[in-house]
Amino acid sequence: MGSDLNVRLTQRIPVALHYLTAWPNAQGEVEFRPDIYRRDATLLAALQRSV
């Protein structure tokens, strides 16, 4: 493993984090990983609500 390096920035920069539990692999098949942060249930409930 590498080492940590802390750097103080002179201005704020936007950061976007994407948490994925499923994605397509090089063969076009969906790969799944465990939802260790338990976010899938919240997302699924939001997607199932009527608009």
Task: Report the radius of gyration as a whole number of Å.
Answer: 17 Å
Helix content: 10-25%
Overall pLDDT confidence: 93
Number of domains: 1
Overall geometric form = extended
- According to DSSP, the number of beta strands is 2
Written account of the structure:
β1 and β2 (30-32) form a beta hairpin. The chain has one domain (16-51). The protein has 1 helix and 2 strands. It has one helix at residues 40-48; strands spanning 22-24, 30-32. The protein has a two-stranded antiparallel ribbon with strand order 1-2. The N and C termini lie far apart (47 Å). By secondary structure, the protein is of the alpha+beta class.
From the structure above, extract its key features.
51 residues; alpha+beta; two-stranded antiparallel sheet; 1 helix; 18% helix; extended
Q: What does the secondary structure layout of this molecule look like, with pairings?
A:
Elements (H helix, E strand, L loop, with lengths): L21 E3 L5 E3 L7 H9 L3
Antiparallel strand pairs: 1-2
Give a short synopsis of this structure.
The chain contains 1 helix and 2 strands; from the N terminus they run ββα.
